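Pasting as-is:
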Amino acid sequence: MAGILDLLGSDLGKTIISGVAGSTGQDTNKTSSVLTMALPVLMKAMQRNASTPEGAEGLMGAITKKHDGSILDNLGDLFNGGVDNDVVQDGGNILGHILGNKQQGVEQVIGQKAGIDSGSVANILKVAAPILMGVLGKQSRQNGVSNSGDLGGLLGGLLGGNSTQKEQSFLEKILDADGDGSVIDDVAGMVLGGGNQQKSSGGGLLGGLLGGLFGKK
């Protein structure tokens, strides 16, 4: 199974990046950077949520009843003239459900690396989240996933297409950051081991690590 980052490199992925950038008024390259970093984080968060029976059942219900993948068949209509407010609101709800109290911290980390403010990251992710759910819904149909018990394998496959053990560990550390406003330092300290690193250099060091893991310089 192709990984979620492989999707971004495809023609469909380029359409998504261009459409999300246009809909949010952001630079295409920065939007690409945000999505390259954010989508594996969101997938990992979904995988964690689906590790409980209740979480898996809720996610299965969402992709069965609402996010069945049909959004991917109408991207032209979705992006033409700006994304509908209902889609953006749905995206906000998805992010809140997936990330919970980690949402702000995740947006800060990604914004730091991408060179844009966390509010702009949030706007990009609100548009991207329903599309990501659509990808999951489409993959579930194509792979014959009909029950919540098989979701973990599907999510692992989407992550495993381009993941290393180190990257997986890093995704966990982003999601485990406390979101108290100093998440850059928190994550940099956890990943780099803290030590004698100065906090002022944490963001730059983290940026380098993110760049290494996600192929961004």
